[in-house]
Amino acid sequence: MARPLIPAAAGIAWLAAAVVYVGTEAIAASAFPGYSYSANYISDLGVPDVAEYQGRAIDSPLHAVMNAGFILQGILYLAAAVIATRALRAGPRRAFLALAAVHAVGITVVGLIHGSASSAASGIGWMHVVGAGMAIIAGNAASIVAGLGSGRVGVARAIRVASVALGVVGLVALALLEALGGSTIDGIWERGSVYTVTAWELMAGVAVLVAARRHRARPHG
């Protein structure tokens, strides 16, 4: 029996999601005076207010770029998940798709409701925190689910192990952020929980495109 082929479109969407995320982050950070990848939160880049919040000076002229990046990343991640799961007939398709949807909703909330003094004052700041938690936990959990279940659809062992490892590292980093938060290296813990999802997108995207290319090169008759 031939292994099910995930369409190349899914791989392209996952790669695009990763590039969009780190790209918009870098662009927004370049315009933020004194922005620190180790001390500042990623979502500081999406705050439209110029103010101080939780001891951090916030001034992100390109906040719209970062917020667009948050939302577009979620859309691309979910689109890839839909394309991939529709092509498969085995493995934890429903669980992965559900987690992908939670991730997309969470990161969209992050892009729409900011972690800022004005959000806190208006009583909606908690929604930003919940959205970030949804995006981080579901994104890393999806990586773990994909790694544990994708052996049934012929994914290489190395990719499965790396997938689980990335998800676990991301969740551990989130736990460290919660336990040690409030320090000058919060940005490191946060990025440890977010970039694992980005790394998974890159890995999955490349794996899907390589498999699609091999399939096209294989003689069919």
Automatic annotation (TrEMBL):
Membrane-spanning ranges: 62-83, 95-114, 126-149, 161-180, 192-212
Protein keywords: Membrane, Transmembrane, Transmembrane helix
Source organism, top-level taxon: Bacteria
A Pfam family hit: DUF998
Keyword hit for Lyase: no
Presence of the UniProt keyword Isomerase in the record: no
Coiled-coil regions listed: none
UniProt name for this protein: DUF998 domain-containing protein
